[in-house]
């Protein structure tokens, strides 16, 4: 999420009781999302709902940056889409300004929706002052993606369930050295995407980006520094960040220039349909050997998870119909369909195994097994997440460490600076 939505809402002076007409017609609903990989599956589910409701649904894909511009401008003018996704970066601001339809009465009267059936972190995310403003759409976990052909070409053993981050470092170093003449690297780190990358190492080694009460951080602790030191080591044998910034880790991987990256379950379909998909394999996210005993102890293997929410505009013309669609998306039936169609993992507990079986010939159990063989932490957020998230990517924080991984002192200083940045941001929320 790029910065700007919270600032735009504040600058616009949006407060409780925003006026404006809704956009929904009685026989048609406009749905906005940002991920083209999910469009076909969601449209199919929506069409199934349309068969009984008689209401047509148009699922529209808007690019990530444009999506938030669309919602921000719509919020200012009172003309938001009917039904749309909410994200952890922005939910608090939208809920606090009464821009989303309050779902409490609908949920109370809906025998298909019991919030106890969903991942608790996703439910809580979309609750403000005791009221629910979005229903959980999905949840996601992270896994290690590797190119089996490149490992074979350079004579390096492929990842196993027993791999630690140190094993990742050693394999990356070996492939980077052996593949130097071909311009091949063992690993690529997407430092701008914290959820599928460096956040996980901080928790593996005992730190917290944001404490569970959302009022503090331990990112400057010795534990967090140990995780970031591991990341620093990996960066020294990975694609330089100047190249990553230009090309992106996904493109580097798909062009056979990189042997390993981490990615979220929301990206499975993109790699499954890629040209080199036959060589792509998923492995359990490595653990952080914080105790130094060469085995995965409890609390050393974490995966972040996030979850989108289905929400409706507070000013939607036909709130009953909008909620009916949301309820269908989030019902057990709709969640199973979402998983079976390979759209993404479910927010409904126990419905995600269908997702792991949705892609023929591909083992996706690393995304589901992490929940049993490791621990999940909800993607860190506060009231104004983007304020400190964006600041951490600047010079004076982690940018210096990303660009200068050879110097351990730079990474340690970045962690100390990050501690102050987050604490100051929370104090000003």
Describe the structure.
This protein has 429 residues and is α/β, with parallel strands linked by helices. It has 20 helices and twelve strands. It has a five-stranded mixed beta sheet. Strands 8-7-9 form a three-stranded antiparallel beta sheet. A hairpin with a 2-residue loop joins strand 4 and strand 5 (131-132). Helix 2 crosses helix 14 (319-330) and helix 14 (319-330) packs across helix 15 (332-340). The chain is globular, with a radius of gyration of 22 Å. The two termini are 18 Å apart. Mean pLDDT is 93; it is low at 1-25.
Give a summary of the structure in a few sentences:
Helices cover 43% and strands 11% of the residues.
